[in-house]
Design a protein that fits this description.
The complex is a heterodimer of chains A (about 120) and B (about 120).
Chain A lengths: L4 E3 L2 E4 L5 E6 L6 E8 L3 E9 L2 E4 L8 E7 L2 E6 L8 E8 L11 E2 L3 E5 L1
Parallel strand pairs in A: 2-11
Antiparallel strand pairs in A: 1-3, 3-8, 4-5, 4-9, 5-6, 7-8, 9-10, 9-11
Chain B lengths: L2 E3 L4 E5 L4 E3 L2 E3 L5 E7 L5 E7 L5 E3 L5 E5 L4 E6 L8 E8 L13 E2 L3 E6 L1
Parallel strand pairs in B: 2-12
Antiparallel strand pairs in B: 1-4, 3-9, 5-6, 5-10, 7-8, 8-9, 10-11, 10-12
The chains are: A mainly beta (about 120), B mainly beta (about 120).
């Protein structure tokens, strides 16, 4: 079975540009998570969805960040306008959420390494 | 709210030596505990998890962890490490949520421990 698929794997862009990161969760998983990883702050949860509905977006750093999940097989994380401090590795993860409490592990994609110049 | 502390940012060890990676958590309620491993340029992979029952949990790649409620710890151990175990290891905690509530598990991660295995 395919795991969580993220694209692109690497993105380099200039400050002020719009950046869109994409994620395809594991088929059948109904919870999706976006994380950001940096050396300074470690792994931070940005937002998570359950059945395509955003449940908790308290980790989203500011209004420049937005996330959508239009259907069960696709999610995007958008940064507009991007800034150098947004440079990080962004991970998407999925799990079985509903009906299984919180004991189901999260499955991570390989991440998108984002560099804002 | 819960939190996770991994006191050791780096642990150097020789191949075939035993290793222990420390994890302490803080929570006012019962928790589920996880260890994840991250190899270079990859996402996190689940090593093992503690939900309930036996306090000694065995995972993949020969790793095991012991849940100690009185010390609020969940240390990861391996009796003999291999070069291929070189990676970043993350301890994580989540709060049990009643089933059929429609909510998802939210993990709180520690800052990670870099295990460096050398010959």
């Amino acid at each position: 079975d395919a795991g969580v698929i993220q694209s692109p794997r690497h993105e380099v862009t200039e400050m002020g540009q719009e950046v869109t990161l994409r994620c395809k969760p594991i088929s059948g998983h109904n919870s999706l998570f976006w994380y950001r990883q940096t050396m300074m702050r470690g792994l931070e949860l940005l937002i998570y969805f359950n059945n395509n509905v955003p449940i908790d977006d308290s980790g989203m750093p500011e209004d420049r960040f937005s996330a959508k999940m239009p259907n069960a097989s696709f999610s995007t994380l958008k940064i507009q306008p991007s800034e150098p401090r947004d440079s990080a590795v962004y991970f998407c993860a999925s799990s079985l959420g509903e009906g299984s409490g919180s004991n189901q592990p999260q499955h991570f994609g390989d991440g998108t390494r984002l560099s804002i110049l | 709210a819960q939190s996770v502390t991994q006191l050791d940012s780096q642990v150097p060890v020789f191949e075939e030596a035993p290793v222990e990676l420390r994890c302490n958590y803080s929570s006012s309620v019962s928790v589920y505990l996880f260890w994840y491993v991250q190899y270079p340029n990859q996402g996190l992979q689940l090593l093992l998890k503690y939900l309930s029952g036996s306090t000694l949990v065995k995972g993949i790649n020969g790793f095991e962890a012991e849940f100690n409620k009185s010390q609020t710890s969940f240390h990861l151990r391996k009796p003999s490490v291999h070069i291929s175990d070189t990676a970043e290891y993350f301890c994580a905690v989540s709060r049990p949520i009643p089933i059929n509530t429609g909510t998802a598990s939210k993990l709180t991660f520690g800052t990670g421990t870099r295990l460096q295995v050398t010959l």
